[in-house]
Structures are given as structure tokens and as C-alpha cells.
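Subject: mismatched residue count in predicted assembly?

I count 856 residues in my input, but I want to confirm that the predicted structure covers every chain. Input:
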Amino acid sequence: MKFIRKSPLFAIILCTGFLFTLAAIGGKDNIYSSQEYHPLKAPVLAIVFTGINDEIYPWQIFTKDVQETSAQPETEENLQKADAGNQPVTEEGDLQEADAGNQPVTEEGDLQEADAENQPLTGENASAGMPSGGRNEEMPGAEADEGAITAVMPTAVPEAVPEPSSGEEEKARPTPFRESTKEEYLNHISADIYGDVGIINAASYEFAQVDESYFDDALFIGDSRTVGLRDYTDLSEHADFMCETSLTIYKVMEEDFAGMGSVEEALNAKDYGKIYIMVGINELGRGTTEDFMEKYTEVIDTLHELKPDAKIFIQGIMRVSGKKNSGDAIFNNSNINARNNAIATLADNRQIFYIDVNEAVCDEEGNLTADYTFDQIHLLGVYNDLWKQFLLAHGVVE
Amino acid sequence: MINFSDLEFIFRFLPIFLILYYVAPAKYRDMVLLAGSLVFYAVGEPVFLLLLIALTFINYFTGKKVKEYGSGYKVHKWQEAKRKKLMAAAVILDVTVLAVFKFLGTFVSSSLLPLGISFYIFKMISYQVDLYKGEIWEKTDFKSTALYFTMFPQVVSGPIMRYNEGEFDVRRNYSLEQFEDGLKYFVIGLGMKVLLADRLAILWNDLQMIGFQSISTPLAWFGAVGYSLQLYFDFWGYSLMASGLLVMMGFDFIENFHHPYASRSISEFYRRWHMTLGSFFRDYVYIPMGGSRCRKSRVLLNLAVVWLLTGIWHGNGVNFILWGVILGALIIFEKLWYGKYLSKIPVIGNLYVILLIPLTWVVFAITDLKQLGIYFGRLFPFIGGAGIAVNSRDIIKYSRNYGGLFLAGILLCIPGVFNFYEKHRKNPVVILLLAIIFWYCVYFMASSAGNPFMYLKF
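Triage response: the counts match. Full output below for your records.
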């Protein structure tokens, strides 16, 4: 008691610290299992606070515990399924098929298999990942070998597009040639699993020079880079902007933009003819190229569904400067390029286009030109005009 | 770890150190503090730890001689001369070491500038001069001297305490109340650093990201004020944390800032800002040169030298010299012409300080002279002309984002607010508030440690 009376602040800090520590230890293996923790650098209670930052609150220990114990068997089952999806197939026959899909093939019969692999067999993929086999029926295109392909696909296309497509032709998208490895995942390396197929395909389109009125029915969606474009060019006199610092592809559809509501609301409220999107730098350290690509594909398809007539311009993620590139394990250009290669494959050159502003702002080595940036990531206000000019040179006119 | 606003320091180094410190019997606590300080310094600066140790030995033994020649019933002339020579030799050595490493740090590589050298060398100089002048009454054994030079709360960035201000031979005040007071200073300092200064730093970073040529004039002024607040709370917060730590160990509080923004002249501002540095220059440069008690022209020269040195001491760019020259000029002008009017008319002096000081901080902040010119062009567009790609409404966005921080910062610049706290620091509501500030700081430190981009999201 004397202690509390003489040193109340110290007492409160010790007590609350003790409680936070209890919460951290209690939640370490469940609600905080995703929080990174370095025992030498920080106290265990730090995960309570990093958790709060990720919207995980200490009282969820109790609610989550109940959920998890009741759903235990199911979780385990799902886990097994997920494992099956992530690991190379085990049955011998399937393995052969997988090989056929990944290697250059010579025999005619195999070629068909390979072709089949490059086709948007989205329904099958979904069926591999999910217990229900219902989706198979939606795919009349899948024929005799279907069973085998279904088993193969998880290896080749781990993150499939669960999009019920109306016409497969239109949605023909290249598939990744391999999976990200666990090492790449752990080290935040974005695997280049698409190559330059998408980039080359997208670049084959002949864009037209347009004037500013072209942007009268345009909507720009993006992170802080796009904030710069909005604030330091006169594009905002023509186009609408839904952009916010630290926006990611994971948040873009849920975000409530000041004064404009959600993206969906904005698309319903106004008849946009062009939708430009550039996100991806903030989430470089999160997940794999596949995770990013899955979400990106979902967003683009949603945008397309919401506004089927609008042209969607996927903008490649702007690179960082050479200094940043060489000194940063996550925010570097090889990671950016790998993800750009992935999202470029979404372009169909009819409704969805891929454009890459890096052409206009990077130096010969492909890094963001040093003179154009102070913080190695953002264009200085005045150089956003280069981006605007690039957009003016990359219009789509029918 | 050498940063006080860091989880590793607060939850790893500090608790272990404090437990050892208080578990040890009182007579061994100095040894614990000395060992802790060397560990602390070694973590931040493993190589130049040897330099600190070598300088400690040299300064201790010269000081010992200086003291020996000066003690006794009668000090002979030859003894006096010897003392003076020894003291001068030690001071010259200290200054040379500082100058050499500053030079290397500037022109070769910044990694060659040993951690905290500007601060611990100043302590060594003050130690030599005070010993020579016979102003150190406390005992100066090796342990206490080494402690004075290296004690971890002060070794990196001050305050530049005097030897007499440290309780090296008298019994320190070891009590729970004293510990509690120190903890409170620490928590307030931590709050200023983490919740104000570190957040305001994003504003200044944003202005650089945009490019000075593209900021509007209102935003340029807003940025100047923001930077002034950032610097103030960064340094005041740091000083409170450092002194708070010492109070927790039983030492007296060392004041380093006394509400400078309530000053009515620039010279008063610098009597209240980084007070231990100001008084160092006063006692060891200005007064030895003659101070104010000589011809007017000599006084002006003395002031000019002090402020030129202040500028050079602060950093290794031309802008720092320019900053020192501007301040020196303003202080000379005050002395020569308008100083007396400033103190007579109440509001005018305050406005003069509040308007001019942020402008001098802009000079302090921008190391590239061309960029500095651009910034002043934006501050005074009628001289600097129009900017490029300026967004005239940027101030709306930034005042919305930083308005709250500005309000909190400006409130804390008012002496009455802090005095109110001092008066009510034992009030349960205030204590609860401090606990909340502490954990809120922990939240920011934790979430930015896991993700270094917490502060700078793209």
C-alpha cells in the first residue's frame, strides 16, 4: 500500500504491464499467432499492441477460443485440404500429368494437355480448392481429362480465379508457370511467376494520343502516388480521384473515401468510361505474388462487372529509385516487376489494358530517376506532369 | 537500443539496469551505473568506445594533476603556471579531437563521427576548466569522473551537465517518491518525442517529398511552424527523458528547456533553449573572452565568435554556419538597438520571437542552400516569385491532418500549461493520463518496430 501511495504511476504501469503480458501470453498461439515477435528487441506484450494495429483486440482471446474449439475438426480438415492444394500432388499418375503441364511437350497428345493447362480452367481450380464439386458442371468446355487436370491444377495455378465467366474466350488469361516457394514467401520476395507474357501482350496494343477532355469520364483509384497525381497536376479538374495514402488492393473495395463513399457507390453514381488503378507498393511485404494476384484479379473482375462498358487501365506499380532498390529487402524493383508481370496478364486489350508509367519516369537501369524524387518512392510534385503526359499518350480511342 | 524511445531500451536495458542498480548496496551503485553506461555506449558505438575510454583516462589524470598543483596552504607561481599549462593542454587536446572527428565526419564519412562526441567532449572541457578555477568542491576520484563523462542518460545527446550538478559524493536521494518523479519526467518526455515530434516529422518529410517548389505559401509557413514544434518536442522530450532517468537513479533534475517560445527576444530564447549548451558557451567561451564587460566592439566580437561556434557545433553544413551567423546578428542587433523596446512592450517581443524563430529553424533544417532559397521563395512569394505545380489548396489537407498535433504542441509551448501539470502532478487524473500516454507511446513504438513503414505509408 505504501508503494502504491508513494509511487502510483510506477504501480499502474507495472500492473497494466503485467495484464498486457498475460494477454500476450494467453493469445500468443491463437489470436496473435500472426504477429512477429523478437524476444530480444521487445517485451512479449508488444504483440498486444501490434495486434491492435492489425485490429486484433485482447478480448478476442475469449471469443476466438470458443469459436476455435467448436470448429476444431473442421479446421483440421480444411488444413489438410489446403496442404493438398499447396503441395505437389502425390499420386504417381497425377505427377506425370503435372510434369506434362510444366514442361515443353513434343507429342501431340501431351500438347493438348499443355494447352488445356493454359486455358482458363477456373472452375476446376476452384473445385480443387473447395470441397464442393458443383463448379465442374459450369464448365462444359472441360472434357475427358478433366479429372486429371483438376488434380494437376493446384500445382500450376494455386490461386485460381473463382469467377463464373460468361465466355471463356474473353477471359483467356495466362497462368503462372510455377508457385512461389516457401522461402520466397518468408523472405518477402515476390516471385516472378508469370514472365513477360502479359507485358508483351499488353504492349502490343496501339495506344492513341488524347487530350485532357478524354479524362472527363475517368476515375483514378490509387495510393499515395496517385494522391500526388491528383494534387500536383490539373487532371483532377477532369477526372475523379479515389485515392488515399497506404491504400492496398486488399482494402480498395472496402475503403470509404472521404466525400465519395466506396468504389462501388462511386461507380453506381456516375457513368465512368475509364477506370485507372495503381496500387501495390504498400502490400509488397504482404503475402506472395499469388495472393496479390488473386486479390487483384478479383478487384479487376468486380470493377468490370460493375461497369462492363468502362475501360479499365491497370497501371503498373511505379518503381522506386536505385538507392531504395539496392537498400531495401522488400520495397525494391525486382519485387515490383514481378508483381507488374502478374497483373499485366489481366489485360485483354479490349476492355482491360495494362500501361506502365515506369517508361516515362525511370532511368536507363529501370529505376525511378533519382532527380525526380526526394524520398526514393514518390515523384516530386512537379514531376507528376510526366505521368500525366504519359497517360495522355496512352489513350484508347475506338 | 541507444534511443530512449525504443522498446528495446525501455523494456530490456532499463529494467535490468534499474533492478541491478537498486539491488546493489548504495556504495556499489556507481559501479553498476558505470558498467551499464559502458554497455549502453558499446551497443551504439563498439569501435569508438575506446576513444571515450582513452579520453576519460587522459582527462582524469590531467585533472588530477591540475588539482594537486592547486592544493596546499600556498600555491606558488610556478605551480600556478604549471596548472594553467596542464589545463590548457587538456582543453586543446579535447578540442582538437572534436575538430578532427567533426572534420572526418563531414568530409570523409559520417560513420567516422563517434556517437555523442560533441556532448561528452564538452563535459570534459568543462571539467578541466572548473577544476582549474577551483570550482569543483566534490571529490573527483576516477570512478566519479568516469561516471560523469560516460553516464548513459547523457552520453549521446546531453544535457551537458556540470560536474558540480551531479551528486557524485553526497548521498543521492533514493526514495520511491524520487523514482516516481523521475518516471513522470521520462513519460512526459517520451510522449513529446513519440506522440508529437515523431508524428510532426512526417509533415516535414511530406514537404520534401512534394518538393519545396510546389508547396503553397500558407503550407510553407505551416511547415516552418511544424518543423519548429517537431524540433522542440524532439529535443525537449529527449532532455526530459534523460533527466528523468537520472532522477529515477537519485540524481537531481537538470533543466535544459525553460519555455523558450514564451521569450520576448532572441537572446532570451537562447537562454531558455538547450540551456546547458548556452551556458557552456557563456561560461567557457564568452566570459573568458571578456563577456559584456569590455568595449562595445569587443562585446560584439565575442558574441559573433560564440554564435559562429554554436553554428559549427550543430552540424556539418554551410546552412548551420549561416544559421549561427543569423542568430548572432539578431542578438547583436538586439543588444545595439531594439532589445530594450522588445522587453518594454509586451506583445511585440513575443510576436517577434514567434515569427523569427521558425524562419531560423528553416535555415537550420535545409542543408542544401539552393533548396533553402526555394523554400524562402515560397515563404515570401513576392520576392521568390511563383512556384511550379503548386497546389493552392494543399494547406486545407495538411491543416486537417496536423491541426490536432499543432494544437497540442502550441498548448505545451505555453508555460502555464506545463506549470499547471507540475502543480497537479500528484492528482490521480493526471497520473492516469500519464499511464495512458505511456501505453499509447508503447503502441506507436511497437507497431512501428514491426513495420518500419508505419510512419511512412505510401
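The CA atoms of residues 89 and 197 of chain B lie 41 Å apart. Marking this ticket as 'not a bug'.
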